[in-house]
């Protein structure tokens, strides 16, 4: 297999991972990264020690003092240049994402394109960090609000989007005047090092302060240093609901802020008026893309009983055409799960749902033989299930789709909303009333609600995030930038007296 992209990204014999932007540190203790594609060792990344963490934080704090007073459009220029560098390295970085994480090459390239898109968005944002002006009730007074940088923003990302989610946070934070410290998933650490290597070129070319963007490496213990650190006013964490509850409680205890992007158990409602071709495309990609390892993966297909058999037959046939294999081969639709623990979770869920009464329409299992040596390739499957099964209410990060029947739209919406997660949702319909009902306040309770597209594939222009056990945070577009800044209300008195608000009198003789 051609892995020259590793050398291009500066990852050949890469052992130093902790970085303060321009400098790297090597603790002598390493995280090994194995590709799920073939089980081979890709490389090693130095684990961050507590002492190195303190060096990173010192560099970040020092950089913030300069970066926060750098004009926002100038900060945007640095992000613009990073976007240009990503265009140069799109092929290589996309291949690394595919190789280290296991998603298809098309999705790997698509993830880097998301990084490029968020850079473009952030550049425009750097000239639009608007506040409001308000009329004062007091004569000769002016009121307005402005937004200031928060400080050091901690970013904890997950393996399934090893580069894009960092960029959603970091590029927005940088133009807002913050500096960032990134702990990538220990399951995909080389992607973080590659992103930092590319960014380092921009920092050197522009003489940017050391420490505006740093990376640290390790397991939950290094994450605990971040969540307990009062020098980090904001932690943005992506991962499981279990992890998010710990992070949220810890940061809240020190009065810090969080952006939490956690679990999803996303459904598509299919109504009688739906275009079946649209249903098949949206549901298939949503269910098997990234081998079911997206927080926005379609896990439940809720189908009206009048078209249930038709949808079941056509979905089953479509699954039979899927090609599973090396994700760097563009002929394949589905790559491997991230590791053997994920495979076991997949098998456990299949066993559990069958014990509850679920019926396999497309059988699952682990693939063996030539090309599947890593033991991480599984078959995407469809299970006919009842909506209230415990397994159906549990997020399994694997390509398992539950097929559920309904009779009335109100029933379908209730089924959609009854799970504890609330990230993404969709309805397939050509009936305007059904669409509007689904999007109304009495409809989907998710942070994302789509009509005639699937549950995955969010664009960076909209704020991304969910409700309930998904965490409630928002990243990426719209006004999500406000989470990375602090609001300040200002009142200026340009008169010669000091009138008080609410007509209060406080006169002295």
UniProtKB/TrEMBL annotation:
Cited Pfam families: Aldedh
Gene3D superfamilies: Aldehyde Dehydrogenase, Chain A, domain 1 (3.40.605.10), Aldehyde Dehydrogenase, Chain A, domain 2 (3.40.309.10)
Enzyme class name: oxidoreductase
GO molecular function: aldehyde dehydrogenase (NAD+) activity
Xref: InterPro entries: Ald_DH/histidinol_DH, Ald_DH_C, Ald_DH_CS_GLU, Ald_DH_N, Aldehyde_DH_dom, ALDH7A1-like
Signal peptide (UniProt feature, chain positions): none
PROSITE patterns from the UniProt entry: ALDEHYDE_DEHYDR_GLU
EC number: 1.2.1.3
Record-stated family: Belongs to the aldehyde dehydrogenase family.
Identification of the protein by name: aldehyde dehydrogenase (NAD(+))
